[in-house]
Structures are given as structure tokens and as C-alpha cells.
């Protein structure tokens, strides 16, 4: 893309999400930022409620942290701010440590943000960004679906104006349902009106800020009609002005009980932010650096912890808001921060009249949107096994807890990878009528040449699949007339200690049976491993071929000589 209209090159080691500037794009970017503020302010207020934090702290997350990432991150699209997944994890981790919304609770949330930011920066220094890859897309869909169900179930009490139940999500939900006989009809009417306005606006045009309209309208009605006299609870006085900047009023020794919570949030931030940045970089054929984004996310969380906010994350929903509004750079996010600054300085007074039922309704819809029915249905259609993993992850999040759900998600992702490697694809190669190689099932026992079978093994050779590999090779070697087994190693990127011992024992067994063992298309790094293990010396240099075709031709030549 031409950049003659703006800065011609990015000479600074930051602002890669902002530069180069494009004058023609600037109006769209600025308008997209205003749109994000209109749509995002109600959303982050809802996330603050999910996290158990004062409503105003939600706005703090899209003030300094969003601007910090805009300047330090590499992605031109990723929006950083309060997020549902990390908000739920934070709330789960702080339960029992302090009373929800209390000064001690807020301080612990700030400490969690600081530790999270520090861990993200350390992760950048030791290049742990790859950990994001251990949460598969299907598991992430299941995790977020579980979070959505948990969030939605938790808002029913406030929407009906009844006391919520106690205990974990499911027990709390049924306890709330048991209290529905105490429903405050005015509160329920407010909730229904909010849902109608938001859903109706989206039906007309998704760019209409339905949540903002609902919030402003509810504030006006609450103030003019004095809804609190009818038993409708409101959020009460909200502090205005800029957030105070400084260390949370806690001791660093309080970080110990937060370790598991921070670990869970870091993993979700790594996975969700990287996935979102990748998606939009691919969409617009742009480059981004996961490591650079880690620095931006880390410093953004440090800024959140120092400014009275809570943990921030790369948000897929807010990123989509900006993209849908025409934003194509972090200029949009900087303009959002400016709008939030104006709101904090001049417009917080009316928030005291906002009914809690309004925020509960907004949060309820956020939860419902997180329930990815289409994603789960798509997984079911193509991979029943992955659907089972996603569904189990969602069920654990809802019934046990979010932190446990994150741990299970990682464990299941790793087990799923091991399972795939444990039973890798194996086939026999042969030369077709056209002279090209084609594969056939191992069970067919297809010969590539007289006495020769070529086995393609499409996985790394490691401890979990080494025994299965050995068994398969020995079965092929037992086929009448087979005098040579060729391993097509093009799909093998690594051989561990168990794999080496297996190859060594396998060669000795085949030698006793007078069956040759040769290799084709061995990758350079794997060949270096085989040299180090002594396999090359044992089988001889002439047992290696650059291609399967060469191995077949060599065998045919030997057979004819």
C-alpha cells in the first residue's frame, strides 16, 4: 500500500499500530473510535460488574491501557480493554479474598493486573508466546461458550430484582430461580425494555449503539420518575475525574494467593489476543509481531494496575466493532481514549441514577453472545471428537469454575495433540500409471517395486507412537516377498530418545530377518539427529535417498542386476 500521504517509514521501535498515517483514512479511523466509545462504554461497565469492580473502573480500562497498547503494540486492529473471559477469571480468583467491590478487593484486582503485566513482559523476554498455541480453536470456543453461559446465568437475579442464590454457578442459578416469586415488576420492566432497545437496534442496524441508548434512556427515566422509590436499585454515586495513579494499597505478599488466577488470565490473554491479531493481520495482509504485542499487553496491564483498573485483554468483540465501523489503525483506539476522557471529566454525575437491572441486562446479552452456537455446531459437523472436548470444557467452566476450565482446556488441547501423534496417518506409496506417486492404505500391502514397501509416516517419531510404528514396520516386513522397507520421512520433524531406541532395535530385528531398512526425504534437522544418534553409521550413507522415487529406482536397479 502506498504511504506517500503520510509517514514514509516506521523508524521508531513503537507506534507500529499507528504508523504509517494515511490522511484519507483518518476521518474513518476517528469516526470508528467514537463508535467504539459509544458501543464499548456500556460493555466495559458490564465487564466491571462481572469482575466485581466498581462500574467506573470499566471506563478506566479503555482510557490509559487502550492508549498504551495503541502506542506499543504491533497490531493495527487489536483493541485492548476489559474483557469477559478475564473478568470472570478475576472474579473467581478474588472470591473469598475480599468483599466484592470493597477497597481491598479493588486493590487486589490492581495487584493482579500488575503481576499479569509483569508475567506478560517476562513471557516476551523468554519468548513464551508459543503457549498461546496450546489452546486450540475448538477448546477456546468451548471455554468462551462456558463463560457466556456462566455470565448470563449470574445476571438473572438483578434483572428480576430478586436476591441471587449462593454457591457455584448452577446452584446459585437454581437458588435465584427459587426467589422469582419476589420479583420486582418495575425492575423486570426496566430489564425487558433494555433488551428490547438493544436487540431492536441491532435488528435495524448493528452500528446503532443500542446499549448506549438504553443506558441514557434508563438514566433519564430513573431520574425523572424516581424509580428507586419503586424498589429499583441504582448503582449510586460514581466518582468523576481522572483515575488516581499509584501502587495498589496491598502488600506484594498478597500476590501468592493470586498466582493461579494470574496464570489462567495470562494464558487466556496469550491465546485470545494472538488469535484476534492474527485474524485481522491475515484479513488485511499485514504483518504483526506476537512478541511486540506481548510488550504492549504487558505494559497496558501495568497501566491498568497503577490507574485503579483491572486486567485488560485483547477483545475480539471490540476489535470487530472498530473494524465494522471502518477503523484500520490504532488511531481509532486513541480517539476512543479521548472520548472516554471527556466522559470521565464531565459526564459521570448522571450515572448514579442508572438502575443495576440495566447493567445486568447488558451483561446478560454479552454472555448470550459469547455462547458460540454456530461455532459449536460447526465443530460437531466436522469433528465429533473435538466437539466432545469443547463441550466438556464448557461444562467444567459452568459447573466447576473458570480457572479449572482454563486448566482443563490446556490439558485437553495437549492430550488431543498427543492423541493425534499417537495414531498418526500411515500409508504405503507406489508408482501409478502416470508415473506419479500415490498412496494407499497400509492394509492393502501395496508394493512400490519388487520386494519393496514404502511407508509414509506423517508425524514426529516420539515416545507415544514409537511402539505402534515399530509394530507396523515389522508387520509389513513379514509380508511374503518383502526384502526392503523404505521409510518416507518427509513428515517427521523430530525423533526423541524413545524414537531413536525404537529405530535402533527395529534395524537389528529387520537385519536378522534379512530385510533392508532405508530412508527417503529425511529433513536436514532430522538427519542431524540421526547422525548424532549413530543411526546413519549403523545403516550406512547409501541407505539415505533424496526422494522416494530415487529409492524405488535404486531398488529396481539392484533387483535387475
UniProtKB/TrEMBL annotation:
* Record Gene3D superfamilies: STAS domain
The answer to whether keyword Cell membrane applies is no
GO cellular component terms listed in the entry, alphabetical order:
membrane
Task: Report the residue ranges that make up the STAS domain in this protein.
Answer: 450-555
Pfam families linked to this entry: STAS, Sulfate_transp
Question: Where is the protein localized?
Answer: Membrane
- GO biological process assignments: transmembrane transport
Q: What is its main location?
A: membrane
What protein name applies here?
Unannotated protein
